[in-house]
Fold this protein.
Amino acid sequence: MQQSRDGFSSRFGVIAAAAGSAIGLGNIWRFPYVLGENGGGAFFLVYMGFIFLLGIPLMLTEMSVGRAGQKNPYGTFRVLAPKTKWYLVGVMGVAAAFLILSFYSAVAGWTLHYLSDAVMDNFSGKSSAELKGMYDSFTSSAVAPSVWTLVFLFLTGLVVVSGVEKGIEKYSKILMPLLFVIIVILDIRSVTLDGAEEGLKFLFHPDFSKLDSKAVLEALGQAFFSLSLGMGTMITYGSYIGKKENLLSSATSVSLADTLIAVLAGVAIFPAVFAFGISPDSGPGLVFITLPNVFLQMPGGYFFSVLFFLLLVIAALTSSISLLEVVVSYFTEELKLSRKTATAIAFVSVGVFGVLSSLSSGPLKEFTVLDKTIFNLFDFISSNILLPLAGLFIVLFAGWKWSRKSIATEILGEGKQETTLFKVFMFIIKFIAPFAIALVFIHAVGLIDIIGRIKI
Ligand code: PHE
């Protein structure tokens, strides 16, 4: 029946592809600066707690739902809960993937541009003010960022159009080990710099006085984004995982790999930043302004800057592949389009939104909806609304609607006795996860602030 459906062919392929989705700009661009802004080590501990307590269970849930349904997120809910409105959760997932891909490819376009700058040695001889100027003038111009966004999306489309096994799996199996080797080389460079200890201390020494409730919620949001949860990505990839694979071990390996790479990215960045006396909390510009500055002062800086931006491009590419696959699988399965046509339509439509996102740092800076630029609006709607809402409904579905037997079959195997670990998992999914996600959601849309203000 299912023979004709494309899917992952090996265990390593499953892990490489799913880790490829999880490991992305979220780990290497976002995690270090969010950690920097939230005081370092203590934030990291809380983040790890969320990965174990909520991240792994939720990833396991998404993979189980996808593998049971054998379809894209929308189709999966149609199969598992026919004649109900649960398919709307799938619709949210597909919409979130579409929007995230739009602004994600805008930032990914910057990484391509920076890679080309690094290769052409364009940072050399620049002062830190000039580097900042380069970043500002590039991100605010009209043509170059849009072109890089489209180039990036095109590369993503090239992989996705080749299919799951011959495209996504094949490239993930090459790119992910490469990413790992590059990050280890960068780590060795960074920790062997004079004065590196300060950076390691910043990363690993928890100072709980810097931790407030905002940082805790931020850690949870970052954990979800970083693990690619709540967007139908892991449902879609789950549907390509063979029935014999052990989902618990896949979800755990992928989550641990994702966390490891976030830590390694921190180790590559902070010791170097501290060694050259630069402030660690420079926000989204950290990797684009601060790091070129660091590379300039470092022996072998040219080589390491090329490696670093290559790392960013690879990380972004394997994540955007998974986002595009969500949209393409929906088009092929529900609209019955060929993979080629589906990818082409997705490329054009995401391309339009991607260019709009990229223009919103420049010519469209003043164009705002609800006080937000297009880029920020897409980020807000997808990361702060669709993602936690879809995540919430996915756990509610698995905990309260789907039969316990079906979920046990996916996780433990047909007819197996429930283990203690499984019982703990079900408890988390039923009671803890919905509550925690609802809290992030309420915080993210600003309701807590609103309630706070009403009291005053
Ligand atoms: N997890 C990716 C990252 O850390 C982003 C992503 C989110 C990718 C959702 C796919 C789906 O960069």
About this structure: The chain has a mean pLDDT of 91. Residues 21-22, 24-27, 100, 225-226, 228, 231, 233, 319, 322-323 surround phenylalanine (CB under 6 Å). The chain has 19 helices and no strands. The CA atoms of residues 273 and 279 lie 7 Å apart.
